[in-house]
Fold this protein.
Amino acid sequence: MENKSDVNQAEEKPQKCVFIGKKYFFKQGKYAINPKSIGLPISLIVLIYNFVHMSYYMNKFLSTSSFAILLIINIILFTLQILQSLNTALTDPGSYLPNYWEDKSNNSDAKIMLATIKGQEYFLKFCRTCLIAKDLRVYHCPDCGLCILRHDHHCPWLSNCIGLNNHHLFFYLVIINVVFFVFNFFIILHIVLNLKEYEIEELLSKNDKVFAYVLLALNIFLLLFNFALLIVHIIYMITGQTTNEKVKRKRGAINPFSNDSKKQNAIEFWKCPMRYKERIEYNDAAKKYLDTNILICDYLSGSYYMSPDKKIISETLVNRGYNYNKANIELIDKSSEGGETSDTVKLDEQNTNDGNGSSAVSQ
């Protein structure tokens, strides 16, 4: 069994990379990657293929003066596209720490957890994989192996869920993609429309002609796909809902998370996506479990506070617009009198793990 000195020594040298669920978390939980997912590498290969071939056709068929300008624009858009794809794919969407040390038999109260919003009552569910109570808008992703806060969808092309921390990044990515593929579409369309002229000038080979049509079809498909994504997510943004909620909600059912106006929904999406949580009322059973859930990014960075009544105060949720107003609790200095620091919480949890199973970090 690990003694306290060993625990303190471990706390002084935190691990740079830990495996939780099905992901490796690094940079104190801000970023994560699933080593078995192939969607992101495939997406990057397609984007690089498109960029390389577009550059080749621009160099071969466009005039020297226009080529230089268009190539610079294409390089800038491509760089933004790759960087934003990686940023969205690697940013943790808001994963909850699995409660590996909690006995399943101690969670019978999860069956009576009740949340009320806009006069509608919802019985909360208990995740039998992560062993935590799932709040409204929390969904367990089997691909990530974790429960995700404000889950929108799991994007196979990014090998990551889209949730609280990266939904706005995904929005930026889709906008960049639309601009990039519109730009590419008009260039390759111009080239395709002038194929006969290039053929007369003996600039065109059979392979060039085939790949020009392939490139045109690829850019049309990617443009339509991303444009559809942009329209759909704009609709979801101004109506205050996620893709997952829209799919699961029955036809005609009221959306409980929407504000009074589309403008308020848009502002909440960009500036304070956790504001909706202040409009929810929980019964005692729900509070008992929800107040002990910890986001992995908070856990690994130590950016949470445990109040005297054992309520977890998340810095991530505070930064994303949730002020804990109903509990009259603020995110105060961890060294303040009357509360435990996040380091103390982690030590207590690790001591609890001794003899009862491994900690979440070692899973």
Q: What stands out?
A: The chain has a mean pLDDT of 83. The chain is about 45% helix and 15% strand. The chain has two domains: 4-32+92-164+250-362, 37-90+165-239.
